Structures are given as C-alpha cells and as structure tokens.
Amino acid sequence: MKKWASILITGLTLSLLFGVMPSFASDFESASSDTIVFPYERKTFIEGEKSVSFRLRNATTKTPYLMQASVEKLDEDTGVNTLESTDNFPFMITPPLYKLEPGQRYDWRVMFVGDTAKMPSDRETVYIAKFRAIPPSIPNTEEKKDSAEFDAIQALHFKVYYRPKNLESLTFEEAQKKLSFRREGNELIVMNNSPIYLSFDSVNVGGKEINSNELFKPLKPLSEQRFKLPSDINGNQVKWAILDDLVLPMEEQVSTLQ
C-alpha cells in the first residue's frame, strides 16, 4: 500500500522535500476541502530508466487548479530553497501545464533528457520537481468574502534523485553505517561517506534535540553537512535516525562524537 500525504493549501509556499516532513508518511487521505494529495515516497531515478512519475490529486470539491510544472536546482546548504540557475537540467516534466479538476488524479512524468556521460558516476545528484498550483481568480465580490477558497498561487517542491546504475543496489541500511559525527563549537558536523543522499528524522546530541528546521538540510553524498546545536550541550553521545525510501524513520542509532 502506498503512503499518501495531504497538504492544506494556503497562501504560503510549501516545501515538501524528502526528509522534511516525516509526519506526513501515514496511510490516509484527508477529507479537507482544500487539499492536494499525493503519495509520499522518495523519487529515485536509476540510470537507464525512462522516467519517474508524480501523482497528485485535487481533493477539493469545487476548485480546479492549473498545475505548472518545472525542474529547479536545490540549495543543498538549506535543503529548502531553490537556486537561480542557467544550467540545462537533465530532467523535464511533462506536461508542463495541466488543469487538475476537483477530485481528479493525474500522473506527471519526470523524464531524463540529459547525457548520462555528463552525470556523476560515483554519487547521486538531486533536483527539484516544482508544481505551482494556480487557482481560478475569484472576483472581488461578497461571494469571495464568504468563500473558504484561496486565490493565491501555491508551490509544491519534491526532490528527484538521479542514481548511477552501479549504485542501484545500495541500501539505506548500508549507507547509514558510513556516517560520522564531530563537534566544532556550536555546530555538529556530519560526514556522509556514502554515495547517496540521506535525511535525518531526528538528531539528539548530549540529551538535547536538534531544532527540526535544521533537519531540512540533506546529508550530501561524500560530503559534510553542518547543523546548529542547542546551547549548553554536555556529553558526546549522538542519537539519530535516518528516513527510508517511504519517508519513515529507521531504527535509532547511537554514535560518539569524534
């Protein structure tokens, strides 16, 4: 059974990135009238495949959304923002525009259009699949004042990972064994010696939880990532858990600061 998540559509931009909102990984579809619903799972494109798909459902009863899809570059220092880029991305989303009617489901395809020879062969690469939900404009009338619908443009961001064929069989269990931890001042430095991206569900250092906003940051392959620590931390024990490909927390691990 697939995991489904329901996001309340508001006037804010929603960054729905793998490893950011683990509480959405549950078996339900919201009955709320103002939601976009989707299966919450890691989207990994294996070298040689043609595409991966994103299924979105308009759970509203009366509001159609014009969905505008595009590929963008992730700011890997924050794990939330996207970066301006003039690069030609190796992925494209089709269709780029689609009207999603109330109650309708639709599958978008994220297709590889790049050159595999130009992609890193020793690690994963990440991109953002961005979906802008544009509602119809509601005239400025008494009807609009009484309406619960919104006429702001919303944005949904999903990570898409490109994985080289030679890394296809690598598991999260194997990858998490290659994490190491050290402290520099008020920062926790995590070294990911594995070739794939990992995301934390939780991190506890010296008995204190790291702020959940810090956990938006991805653990980049073969790289370090820095996390701000709470004040007055004592001890060198780190308790942590990684999210799996269904965005569920794996078994908690215990490490010692180096």
Order of helices and strands: EEEEEEEEEEHEHEEEEEEE
Count of the separate structural domains: 2
CATH homologous superfamily of the largest domain - what is it? Immunoglobulins
Which structural class best describes the helix and strand composition? Answer: mainly beta
Give the total of beta strands. 18
Signal peptide: 1-25
Subcellular location: Periplasm
Domain Pili assembly chaperone N-terminal: 45-167
Keywords: Chaperone, Periplasm, Signal
Structure, described:
This protein has 258 residues and is mostly beta strands. It folds into 2 domains: 36-138 and 150-166, Immunoglobulins (Immunoglobulin-like); 172-256, Sandwich (Immunoglobulin-like). It is 4% helix and 41% strand. Strands 3, 5, 6, 8, 10 and 11 form a 6-stranded mixed β-sheet that branches. Strands 1-2-4-9-7 form a 5-stranded antiparallel β-sheet, with no helix packed on it. A 4-stranded antiparallel β-sheet has the order 15-14-17-18, with no helix packed on it. The longest helix has 5 residues, at 142-146. It starts with a strand and ends with a strand. Mean pLDDT is 85; it is low at 6-33. It is found in: Periplasm. Residues 190-245 form the Pili assembly chaperone C-terminal domain. InterPro entries: Ig-like_fold, PapD-like_sf, Periplasmic_pilus_chap, Pili_assmbl_chap_C_dom_sf, Pili_assmbl_chaperone_bac, Pili_assmbl_chaperone_C, Pili_assmbl_chaperone_N. Belongs to the periplasmic pilus chaperone family.
